[in-house]
Amino acid sequence: MYNYPKFKNKEYDLLHSTGIRSGEIIPNFTVVNLDGKTKSISDFLDKPIVLETGSLSCGMFAGQEKAMNQLAKEVTDFNFLLLYVREAHPGKSIQAHSSMHEKCDLANRLNSEDKIENRTIIIDDINGTVHKILGALPNMVFIIDTNRLVIFKDEWNNASDLQKAMHEFRITQKPIRQKWSMLPLPNIPVEYKVFKRAGWDAGFDFIVALPKLLFSHLFGGLCRKFPGFC
Hints:
By secondary structure, this protein is of the alpha/beta class. It is about 40% helix and about 15% strand.
């Protein structure tokens, strides 16, 4: 089930890198904006695109918000898009999406509560069509050139690494080799804010899953770095 009601490790494949890769052409996918109007990626290709995935209940996304707001404010030669995807950690207060109306309401809530600045929020369909194409992780980030070529993909957004990749792209205009990226350690104040908002049951689910989550990610990194190891 794409919109899972409770977070469990089985919802994510951390052993394998999935979805579209650096050097591939991204489809001209269709989404809606906060006003419910249909948009496609081609509507934003007057400049290269920085595309991030996130949701109200994603602690990793919340941990990068300030840095991403600042980056989007300082950098004017890219369009910054935020794709609202499924809830990373649904709970009693922020539940798994059951309709597009509900998903759009939560995306608008994110925009107002978290003050998303200088970034355009777009919303995936209820079945996560675009999210699945991208790789279905909760807080990925991409650089896409004006020909829809994926220049850079990071499976866990880090604004500092993203900024370096943007600088390299300006110089070379070529795809950047994808590498395994470190899963960020939980930021306790940020996670507290997120789980207070989503529901304490969501926090409990996360704590239960965390040891295996970290192990799977580290083991997956070894498999990618040393293919004969696995």
